[in-house]
Amino acid sequence: MCGIFGYIGHKNTKDIILEGLKSLEYRGYDSWGVALKKLDGSIDLVKQIGKIGNSTIKDTNSNIGIGHTRWATHGGVTIENAHPHLSCNKEIVIVHNGIVENYLELKTQLEEKGHKFVSDTDSEVLAHYLEESYKKEVDPVLCMQNLCSVIKGLNAVIALFVKEETFVAYKNGSPVIIGKNNDEFFVSSDPVGIASYTDKLYFLEDGEIIKASKNSIELLNQDKKVKPVSFQTINFPKNMSDIGNYPHFMLKEINDQVDVITNILKTQRKDVEEVASKIKNAFGCFLVGCGTASYAGLAGVYFFSKIARRHLNTSFGSEFSYLINFIRRQSLVIALSQSGETIDTISSVKKAKEKGATLVSIINSPHSTLDRLSDKSLYLHAGPEKAVASTKAYTSKLAYLFLMAHAVAGSLKTGQSLLRKSVIEVKKVLDYSSKIKLLAKKIAKHDHIFILGRGLSYALALESALKIKEVSYIHAEGFPAGELKHGVIALIEKGTPVIVYNPKDETYEDTLSAAYEVKARGAFVIGVSEKKAPVYDVHIPVKFCSDATIIPQVVIAQLLGYYLALEKGLDPDKPRNLAKSVTVK
Length: 585
Ligand code: M6R
Hints:
By secondary structure, this protein is of the alpha/beta class. It contains 17 helices and 25 strands. β21 (448-453), α15 and β22 form a beta-alpha-beta unit. The longest helix has 20 residues, at 412-431. 5-amino-5-deoxy-1-O-phosphono-D-mannitol is lined by residues 290-293, 337-339, 342, 345, 388-390, 393, 470, 578, 582.
C-alpha cells in the first residue's frame, strides 16, 4: 500500500527521501514521486511509473522534501495520478496514504471555487483544500486542522508548505512515525524507513497533527492542544533488510522458519502461559486476522478444539465488525498480524475493544498500531518479513497457537516436544527442495491446482492455496476433502494436479478415499503424508508430529509456490497487485 516519507534537515534531502521510499517498497507500489523545495523557493517534482530501482534524482539544493510510493486505488497507474500532488498555486504539495471517502463532494466544492484538477485521485483534493484554507489561516497547522475536520476515512497526509520551511503531517488510521536526529526531522509510514538515521521516534496518535520546521517541532493533540513530543528511543535490529546469499527474500524467509520457531520454543513460555490463562478465563474468544493470518486463526480453532477441547471462534478482520454483537466485557479478542498495520483487522478489533473486550495481539511488528492498541502483545520475533507472501509469520503464529492450546490443556511440555519434532521435519522438507522444484516444473503449465485436507489439514489447504496463487498466479483452491462429492469433483479432469494433505491423524482413511476419488477422474495426485500409498503419483513424506505436522506440511506449499513463480518467470517477492501491508479498506 502507499508509503509516505518526508525530511527536513541539512543533509542531502533527495537521497534521504529516495532511500526512505526504498525502505517502504516492500509495502507494494506501482509508481512513485518526490517533491523537493529548492533554495530559490520553487518545487522540483519527480514522478515515475514502476519501481525506483536505481533511479536517481538530479541534484537539487534542498533542505526539505516529501516522497510517496503509490499503490493505485482511485485512478489508474499514470504519472498524473502519482503523488506528490500540487495545489493550483503550487504553494502546497501533498502525499497521502488512505482513502478520502468524501473526495467527490469536496472536489465539486473546490471546482466551483475555480480549482483545476489534473489527476483522477481522491488525494488531490487535499492539496486544493489546503490552498483554500491557507488563504484564511496563517498557520499551516490550522489549515491541516480545517482539512481534518472535513475529510472522511482513514488517512495519513504530509503537506509541504512551500513558502515556509515546513511540513505538516496528520494521521487517522494509517500509521505515521516521526523521527528526530538533533535538528533533523523525518516522517514515514513505517519506522523501518527512519531507523537507519535515528532511534528517537514518535508514533503519531489518531487525530494528532505535527508541524516540523527548521530546528523545531510542534504537536497538536486531538483536542487541538499543543503537547510536547515525547520521542522514545527504539532499538531496531541492524540487519533488517539482509537477504544473505538467497536469490529472493521469499526463499530466505522460508528457510528462516527453523530458527524462528526454535526461538519461540526457547523464549516464549511465559507469554504463552499468560495468554493461555486469559483464554481460560474469557467468556468467548475470537481469533481475528486477514489473509494468511486468518488461516492461522482457523488452524488455531482446530488446535484448541483438538488439544484443549475448547471452542474458539475465528473471523476475517474484514468480517469481524459484523459479528461484534457477540462481544462483551469478558470477551477476549486475539488479533493475528505480521505487520500490525492491517486496517481491516485494526478497525474491527478496535470496535471490540470499545465494547470492553480484552485485546491480545500476536504480531511481528513491535510499535505497530495493533501493538499500541493491545492490552497485551506477543511478538513473533521472526525478523522482518519482506516478501509479500507471508511465510515465517504464518508458521510462527501457528507455533504460538499450538503451544497455547497445549498450555490451556495443561500439556505445555508435550506441546513443546511435538513442536521441536516439527522443526526437524521442516529441516527435512527444506532438504527436499530440489524435488519440489522438479514438481513445480511438471505442474507449472496447469491453470488450476486443487488442495484437499480434512480438519486441521483443511485450514492448511486454504493457506497452501493462497500461497500458490499469490506468487504463481495459478488458480489454486483449497477444499475440505469431504466436500469433493458435493460439487468440486466436477472440476477434476485428466492431469489436474491435486495436492492431498494426509497426516496420520483421525482424517487419514477418509482423506485417502478422496485421493482415490480424484485419481479415478484422472487427477495427478500429490500425496503429502508419512505413509506412501499407491494412489499418489508423487509422494512427499512428512513424519507425523501430531497437530504440529501442519508446520512442515505448509513449508511444502511455500516452496512449491516459490518454484512455480520462478518456473513462470515471475518475481516471487513482489507479486502483481499485492501490497505487503494493507493499510486501506
Ligand atoms: O500483516 P498482516 O499479517 O496483518 O497481513 C494480513 C494479510 O494481508 C497477509 O497475510 C496477506 O494475505 C499475505 N499476502 C499473505 O501471504
